[in-house]
Each structure stands twice: as C-alpha cells, then as structure tokens.
Design a protein that fits this description.
InterPro entries: Aldolase_TIM, Alpha-hydoxy_acid_DH_FMN, FMN-dep_DH, FMN_HAD. Keywords: Flavoprotein, FMN, Oxidoreductase. Its cofactor is FMN. Belongs to the FMN-dependent alpha-hydroxy acid dehydrogenase family. The protein contains 13 helices and 10 strands. The protein is α/β, with parallel strands linked by helices. The protein has a single domain, classed as TIM Barrel, CATH 3.20.20.70. An 8-stranded parallel β-barrel has the order 3-4-5-6-7-8-9-10, surrounded by 7 helices. Strands 1-2 form a two-stranded antiparallel sheet. Strand 5, helix 6 and strand 6 form a beta-alpha-beta unit. It is globular, with a radius of gyration of 20 Å. The termini are far apart. The structure holds ligand FNR. Ligand FNR binds next to loops.
Length: 370
C-alpha cells in the first residue's frame, strides 16, 4: 500500500453545486493577494477571459431517442484506460490554498480516477506525493511537470528522481521561460513565501549585463531550452513526454517529429503571453495538423461538463483543470477537490446523455453539422 498520509477532514461547505459555486466560496476563504495569485491572468487578462468565452460560444447539437444504457466516459490515453477524461493540471504552491496542498489534490484525483500532474513548484517532495497515491487501485495517471533548463546535469538528475519515484510521464512546460506581467498579483502585493517550493530547480543565476543587455534575454532566455534540448531529453528518458504550452500547429508538428508522446494545448490558463488565442480556438488547427499521430490534451477555462464534451468533440483526448482544483482545495481540502472533479464528471455524463453521445470517441457527433 502507499505510505499513509494524514489529511485534514474539512467538511464540504453547503451550497456548492457547480464549479462557479466553488469559485465564489473560495474567494471568501482566501486573502486578496493569494486570490490574485491563483485566479489572475497575465497583463490585461484578455486570454484568461477568452478561454472561458470560447468554450461558452461553441454550440452543441442535441440528438434524441437514442439508446444510451451502455454509454460511458472511459477513454484510452498513453496505453491506459481511464474512467473519464479529466485530469488535474500542474498548479504551483497549492499549500497557499490549504495546508495539505498537493497531498490533498493527489488523493482527490486518485479517489476520482483522475490523472494528476505534480507541478515542479510543489510544496511537497515529489517522492512523498508519489508514494501517497502510487498503489491506489483506481487512480488515474501520475505525471510530473518540469520546466526544462539548458543545464543538462540538473535535468538528468531531476528525471532520475522522477523515474525512481514512479511517475509515469514527464510534462514539459514550454510556454513560460520568463514570467509574463502579472498585473493583478503585483497590485495586490503578492509575494511567494520563502521555502514553499521544495522540488524547484533554481532560477537562472544573475549574469553580468553589458549596456543594452537585459535579464529577459541574457539571463532567462539564455537558460531556456530549445528544440535540441527537447531532442536530448527524448533520448535521455524512456518516460513518455508531453509538451505543454503549444498553440501553433507547426510547433505541434515539430514536437511530433522530435518524438513527444502527447501535446497539451494550453496558454497556461491565460497566465503566459496575453492576447494569444483561446485554447478552444487553437485546438482545431492542431488537430488537423497532427492528424491523430499523438493524443492531444487541452486546458484553459474548462468549467462545465459541456466544455469537456466540446473539447473532446473538437478532437482532444482529455482535458485538464487548473484553478477549479485550487477552489476545491481552499473550500474543503481533498474532499473539495474530489467534489470539483465529481461535479465535472456528473455534468459530462449529463451532457453526453442529452446530446446522444454513447462514447467519447464519437463526441464529434455532438457538434452542429456532424
Ligand atoms: C498554473 N499553471 C501551471 N502550469 C505549469 O505547467 N506549471 C505550473 O507550476 C503552473 N502553475 C500554475 C499556478 C496557478 C495558480 C495557475 C492558475 C496555473 C497552468 C496550469 O497548469 C493550467 O495550464 C491552467 O491553469 C489551465 O487553465 P484553468 O483551468 O486554470 O483555466
């Protein structure tokens, strides 16, 4: 069995029927600065808003009088059958939302058969999180998210730890080699408490700057990886690699050529470059370009079962949720996160039933014109 972890048993507050209810309740539990960190986007928040609007704008087309007693939400992903297509996205500093942090969200994911991606900026050692869920019978996939740097010794060492701990894939995030402006969080005076991230790779060391040089280019971008580093990583580990933060079809194709096993179509929940397309808009061109060679996952603004169904109907294999897990965590620790996942699963089942969709690999039939 996994190492026993002792989690707080917070009761589930009354009146939480949707993810929006969780959001409103979490707002009242977190202070302004912490809220700005978790819920804000970058700069003007244009992509943050666009993510949600784009899912809402897409229409579903109901089909009636179909027999659906054999319907289910199961999917195949990277060689495994999963009970449903919802995963928890890597989200940093979860202990700011609840003392149990990642241990709680990992437990909740395991209990709900949801995939779990541990952020490289977690407040719990990666081996501790893995040991707490690894042997749970119904759990979904357990993946580790890393930010690659060019320092190959550091990456090699990290990958060895991740493999030894039993993680089943690496999620390599490539859309945030420098932090985008975080207006809300700056105005709210948010500061990351020291010592909160225990698995973190240190930020690139300051470099002497000549006139005309900048930290952005000569420090952060100089330490950031490029395609050759991804090729090197591919040759270094046998773990499946998912590339997270791809929006351009040519980047998607390049990644497939390098040998990644899956792509996460993501704009970092509107926290990286602002004004980039909503993920619902970025997904279809990538689906066409990749043409089924690797599975595609998508995140950003997924808040309803209908959003999940639409993402899959557009060609994604699975979806991830970021902020909603934080809301559940703030509201009731592990139970709150499990509740968020369960609500989304219930809504997905209802959306499938009412659109006449028996299996998610037939979800495209739920779109108008199918
Ligand atoms: C993130 N995200 C993120 N991504 C990543 O690869 N590594 C990380 O450490 C983090 N940290 C993080 C913190 C917070 C507070 C948020 C909100 C997001 C991005 C995350 O994995 C995911 O792409 C988005 O959160 C998905 O959008 P929604 O569901 O939050 O709208």
């Amino acid at each position: 069995m996994g190492r026993a972890v002792s989690l707080r048993r917070d009761p589930l507050p009354a009146g939480l029927h949707t993810l929006a209810d969780h959001e409103a309740h979490a707002r009242s539990r977190l202070d302004d600065a912490t809220w700005a960190y978790f819920n804000g986007g970058s700069a003007d928040g244009i992509t943050l808003a666009a993510n949600r609007e784009a899912w809402g704008r897409l229409a579903l087309m109901p089909r009636v009088l179909r027999r659906l007693e054999h319907a289910h939400t199961r999917i195949q992903l990277l060689g495994r059958e999963l009970a449903h297509p919802i995963l928890l996205a890597p989200v940093a500093y979860q202990r700011l939302a609840h003392p149990d942090g990642e241990l709680a969200s990992a437990q909740a994911a395991a209990a709900q058969g949801a995939g779990f991606v541990l952020s490289s900026l977690a407040g719990t050692p990666l081996a501790t999180v893995a040991a707490s869920v690894r042997h749970q019978p119904e759990r979904g996939p357990l993946w580790f998210q890393m930010v690659m740097q060019r320092d190959r010794d550091a990456v090699r060492e990290r990958v060895a730890q991740v493999e030894a701990a039993g993680y089943e894939a690496l999620v390599v995030t490539v859309d945030a080699p420098v932090q985008a402006p975080r207006d809300l969080q700056w105005r709210a005076g948010f500061r990351i408490p020291p010592g909160l991230a225990v698995n973190e790779q240190p930020a690139p060391a300051p470099v002497p700057l000549a006139p005309g040089d900048s930290d952005v280019f000569q420090r952060f971008m100089a330490a950031a990886p490029d395609w050759s580093d991804l090729e090197w990583l591919r040759a270094t580990t046998r773990l499946p690699i998912l590339l997270k933060g791809v929006l351009h079809p040519q980047d998607a194709l390049h990644a497939v050529e390098v040998g990644v096993d899956a792509l996460v179509i993501s704009n970092h929940g509107g926290r990286a470059l602002d004004t980039v397309p909503a993920t619902a808009a970025a997904l279809p061109p990538i689906v066409r370009a990749v043409a089924g060679r690797v599975p595609l996952l998508v995140d950003g603004g997924i808040r309803r079962g209908t959003d999940v169904l639409k993402a899959i109907a557009l060609g994604a294999h699975a979806v991830l949720i970021g902020r909603p897990l934080v809301w559940g965590l703030a509201n009731a620790g592990a139970l709150g996160v499990a509740h968020v996942i369960r609500l989304l699963r219930d809504e997905l089942e209802i959306a499938m039933a009412l659109s006449g969709c028996e299996r998610l690999d037939q979800a495209a039939s739920a779109l108008p014109g199918a």
